[in-house]
């Protein structure tokens, strides 16, 4: 069985000029933990993860300890930092060399990579273009249901 048989062709993707706010909104709407970044021609550029967005908004830990701020003040600092970043473009956070799959890759390769690297979703790229994603859930569904003749 090949990746093309299980990949999701409807992917959560954004342009590198999208703002942090737009990325956060798409993460919520898609329930994804990362977004594929593409150019206007759907050429795959990389990934932005929810963790990258959180880390960008986090205050410096050493600064927090030195300041002696209360929990409430620390939370307010996090919110203020988030607000100040909201209109910045995500381009600076893009991971430009993530692991990817090809539609022709065997599912065993996808499973091995996901387990070995602890990755929940991989972009599927063909001839430089984003054509889908494959998640662990897609993989499990394929292994458990497709081969048994069930189709959901």
Question: How much of the residues is beta strand, in percent?
Answer: 15-25%
What is the number of domains?
Answer: 1
What are the secondary-structure elements, in order, as H or E?
EHEEHHHHEEH
User: Which structural category fits the helices and strands?
Assistant: alpha+beta
Which strand order do you get reading across the main beta sheet? 1-2-3
Largest sheet: 3 strands, mixed
CATH class: Alpha Beta
Instruction: Return residue spans where pLDDT drops below 50 for at least 5 consecutive residues.
Output: none
Distance between the termini: 18 Å
Report on the structure:
It is a single chain. By secondary structure, this protein is of the alpha+beta class. It has a single domain, classed as CBS-domain, CATH 3.10.580.10. The chain has six helices and five strands. The chain has helices spanning 20-30, 50-57, 61-67, 71-85, 107-117, 136-144; strands spanning 13-14, 34-38, 44-49, 121-126, 129-135. The strands form two sheets. The chain has a three-stranded mixed β-sheet with strand order 1-2-3. Strands 4-5 form a two-stranded antiparallel ribbon. A hairpin with a 2-residue loop joins strand 4 (121-126) and strand 5. The chain is elongated, with a radius of gyration of 18 Å. The mean pLDDT is 88.
């Amino acid at each position: 069985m090949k990746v093309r048989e299980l990949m999701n062709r409807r992917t959560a993707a954004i342009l590198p000029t999208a703002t942090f706010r737009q990325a956060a909104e798409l993460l919520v709407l898609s329930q994804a933990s990362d977004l594929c970044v593409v150019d206007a021609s759907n050429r795959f550029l990389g990934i932005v993860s929810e963790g990258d967005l959180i880390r960008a908004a986090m205050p410096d830990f050493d600064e927090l300890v030195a300041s002696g701020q209360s929990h409430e003040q620390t939370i307010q600092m996090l919110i203020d930092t988030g607000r100040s970043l909201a209109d910045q473009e995500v381009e600076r956070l893009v991971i430009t060399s993530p692991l990817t799959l090809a539609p022709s890759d065997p599912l065993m390769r996808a499973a091995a990579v996901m387990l070995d690297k602890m990755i929940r979703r991989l972009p599927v790229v063909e001839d430089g273009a984003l054509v889908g994603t494959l998640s662990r859930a897609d993989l499990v569904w394929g292994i458990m249901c497709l081969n048994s003749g069930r189709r959901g």
